[in-house]
Amino acid sequence: MMLVPIAIVLFAASGLAALFIASPRWSSAVGAGGAVAGAVAGLFAAFGCLLSGAAWRLDLAWSLPIGRLCLQMDALSAFFVAATLFLCGLAAVYARDLTRESLWEAFFARRTYATNGPRIVLDFRTASTLMGGEQQACVGSRIRFSVFTVPDGLLDRVELVRGGEAVQTVFSGRNQVPEFRAEFEHTVAPGSRPYYVRVYQTDGGAAWSSPIWVTGV
């Protein structure tokens, strides 16, 4: 069952190597290839543990005072490992171009969103601020948010979320639409509050934008 440490090494090594490879094409190839190879190795290890029902354990000597390094997988943990590697999500970033400098700039600016697997396109902004940014507005005024999405299936609804609570919802009628636009308005409250959108499809697919932090002054 050495496939478990092999999978870990593949994930770590390919990710680190991709950071230092100058060529964008080779960097993408090494990162993606290592991720696929690591996932395949991990899936074989997880399914082997599930089918055999036998737990796997590896103890390695550790010279530091913290003791030892131990890796273990039983049937329960193998189930979650298989689900994590097989049903992986996706992350997207809004960058000016496909260069390492532009990607890092976009990451630090938080111009990103995530999905639980479907290739959903999502754009969330105000008149002056893209997702991930910060904006000030007068307390009691109305701020308008714009949402644009290209679903990867039947679109169910789009929610505007403030501080973890859905404050407005737009339903699409569960239609197969090539793209969908919506606008939300909300009253600005004192203090700084994050607003973001959630997009849901009827098949369980979903996407979440980075928030826009709105500060009421």
Written description of the protein model:
This protein has 217 residues and is an alpha+beta fold. It has 2 domains: 3-88, no CATH class; 113-216, Immunoglobulin-like, CATH 2.60.40.10. Helices cover 31% and strands 36% of the residues. The protein has 4 helices and 13 strands. It has helices at residues 3-20, 24-52, 75-86, 100-108, and strands at residues 56-60, 69-73, 90-93, 112-115, 121-125, 134-137, 142-150, 155-162, 165-171, 180-187, 191-201, 206-209, 212-216. Strands 3, 4, 6, 8, 9, 11, 12 and 13 form an 8-stranded mixed sheet that branches. It starts with a helix and ends with a strand.
Write the layout of secondary structure elements.
Elements lengths: L2 H18 L3 H29 L3 E5 L8 E5 L1 H12 L3 E4 L6 H9 L3 E4 L5 E5 L8 E4 L4 E9 L4 E8 L2 E7 L8 E8 L3 E11 L4 E4 L2 E5 L1
Parallel strand pairs: 6-13
Antiparallel strand pairs: 1-2, 3-4, 4-12, 5-7, 7-10, 8-9, 8-11, 11-12, 11-13
Helix pairs in contact: 1-2, 2-3
Beta content comes to: 35-45%
What is the radius of gyration?
Answer: 22 Å
Question: What is the CATH C-level name of the largest domain?
Answer: Mainly Beta
Number of structurally distinct domains: 2
Beta-strand segment tally? 13
Q: What is the fold-level CATH name, i.e. the topology of the largest domain?
A: Immunoglobulin-like
Question: What CATH architecture label of the largest domain applies?
Answer: Sandwich
**Anisotropy-based shape:** elongated
First and last CA, distance: 59 Å
What is the H-and-E element order?
Answer: HHEEHEHEEEEEEEEEE
Helical amount: 25-40%
* Overall average residue pLDDT: 86
The SS-based structural class is alpha+beta
The CATH superfamily of the largest domain is identified as: Immunoglobulins
